[in-house]
Amino acid sequence: MSQLSNLWTRFLSLNTDVQVRWKSMSRVQRLSGYVLAVLALYLAPWWPKIPGIGWLVNTPGTQFSTVLNDQVIIFVLVALGLNVVVGLAGLLDLGYVGFYAVGAYVVGVLTSQHASLPWIVALPIAVVVSMLVGVILGTPTLRLRGDYLAIVTLGFGEIIRISAKNLDWLGASRGISDIGKPPSIGPLKFGVLDPKPYYWLGLTLVFLVVFCLYRLEESRVGRAWTAIREDEDAAELMGVNTFKFKLWAFAIGAAVGGLAGAHYAGKVGFISPDNFPLQLSILFLAAVVLGGSGNMAGAILGGIMVAWLPERFRNFTDKRVLVFGIALVLVMVFRPEGLLPRRVRTKSPMKPASDGQEVTQ
Amino acid sequence: MTNEVLLDFNNVTMQFGGVTALSDVSVKIFRGEILGLIGPNGAGKTTCFNVMTGVYQPTQGSVVFNGSDITKLKRFQITQSGIARTFQNIRLFSEMTAVENVMVGADARKTSSIPAALLRTKHQRAEEKESYDRSMELLALMGIADRASDAARNLPYGYQRRLEIARALATEPELLCLDEPAAGFNPAEKQQLNELILKIRDQGYTVLLIEHDMSVVMNVSDRVAVLDFGKKIAEGLPSEVRSNPDVIAAYLGVPDDAA
Predict the structure, then answer these.
(1) Domain that holds residue B54
(2) How many domains does the structure of chain B reveal?
(3) Is B247 part of any domain?
(4) B50 touches chain A (CB under 8 A)
(5) Phi and psi torsions of A357, nearest 5°
(6) Which of B91, B139, B144 sits opposite A231 (nearest CB)?
(7) Contact A184/A194 with Cβ under 8 angstroms?
């Protein structure tokens, strides 16, 4: 076991080596590095065909690109959103599946159940509605802290699912079928058979979300969130409007969750209340905590692991949940702060770190 | 020091259930002075701070700052109106770097929120730079700029104490409240702190200082107020207070034969 953890430490130090070399590269080299990485991600559906590592990533029994979109992309999006709430602002949300469901249901209602808007029009509406639901839920509950907030949000997730199950207007337990699909662009056809276009769309959404969240993190907003997580009372006494920023964290998290739900609904074309069980909330949270709460790269990695591992072990049939569970426990034993723990940014926001040393005492 | 009253602590009574922590306490703080607030343990000094900064709502009485009643304001509004504080037990944002800690304080005066941060507007970038520059300046003033990029929890104790002061100053207060800033300092560090407090006052801040250590209070304070069992028992120049029999009794007890 300690060998395993040694291996991981070595991997991390290798990671540091790569970072050092990365920083010494020229701009052109780095830019081409980015382009290659992005290209590799868009070509991910073909990874199982690569000799050597192909068998490792491949998911026996399920088409790899289906796993990529229906599992990995969804979990990565959700983990990114939940990371804002749990990792940055430190608000424990156990009902995150509720926002995911709201996003999916808005698309369902607007493209099939009660209207026939195109998916692309329903998408932004779904995001905005999820955000509003976040605000509506947050306004009364964000006065609570810690365990109390967790319990209330837990209830919220269930309220959404049970309401959907009992409201005929939302299709009750029959769910909603024939949900609109994203519009085809040229050769990109969003059909039933090929999941690749959905994956590419989803990956693009991930990039968009990462870009936006990065900008928020590296600003007054991100600092306010972190300060609230570290010491809410001290933050408020330093002039942070804690309630407002907690509400924003909730709203942003909800919006990303709704986006994931909308993408999911567009792909599968059919949703029912059973798609949004409490267990999913727990898995979402597991993704964030497993990857490294408060670190965007960690949340992404956590999302990938939680989504992909059960599919990788599908040929273990009944025992795959056990294997998945053991894998989670092992990670938490050896990496209690997650696979990629949040690091204190050593770089100052404006200038290189060495700057401060010029000032002598 | 001028005769202008900056903060008027007006007949404040603070009760917690049956316990009266402050009983009809009135203190005036004048603009530009250093007021020392002393008293034995449990006298109500920190409660005073907590009432001023909005942590507690007083049972009776009011706090008037700069001519307006701040008793009912929220904590962050009080900070934005110009009162900043440090904590007796250090409460930094331990996983943030030193400069980020100070920037949180500086952000209290900034307005750009989510939309501006998403769009990286010109205004937002200017504010970010302003926050950063001001924070580095304050770290330099406190003499801790060499560790600006270290996590707050990794800083030595003396640095953490000074970082708290820097963070409070970053909110651009008119009144700076220091809660036992010399706790745990050795004599040399206390001397440095004295100079620092005087330097802060000379930059135009008004300072309210809670301190146990007489060498600090008596050397830097312009005036001293003394609390004992939630009541104000003396107020005046350090030399007057030092020889006040009530104060001596509160600190040293009353000899049996005199009672």
Answers:
(1) 1-78
(2) 2
(3) no
(4) no
(5) -70, -15
(6) B91
(7) no
Q: Which residues of B touch A87 (CB under 8 A)?
A: none
- Check whether residue B170 and residue B130 sit in a common domain: yes
* Nearest partner of A172 among A89, A75, A267, A274, judged by Cα: A274
From the first residue on, what is the mean pLDDT of each consecutive set of 10 residues in chain A (361 residues)? Answer: 68 74 82 90 88 82 85 95 95 94 96 91 96 94 88 93 93 89 85 88 95 94 95 94 95 97 94 92 92 91 90 76 84 86 60 39 33
Among A239, A345, A353, select the one facing B105 at the smallest CB separation.
Answer: A239
pTM (predicted TM-score) = 0.89
Q: In terms of residues, how long is chain A?
A: 361
User: What span, in angstroms and rounded, lies between the C-alpha atoms of B77 and B90?
Assistant: 22
Do B107 and B29 share a structural domain?
Answer: no
Interchain contact B76–A (C-beta under 8 A): yes
Nearest CA in chain B to A353: B149
Q: Does A317 touch chain B (CB under 8 A)?
A: no
Whether B179 and B99 map to the same domain: the answer is yes
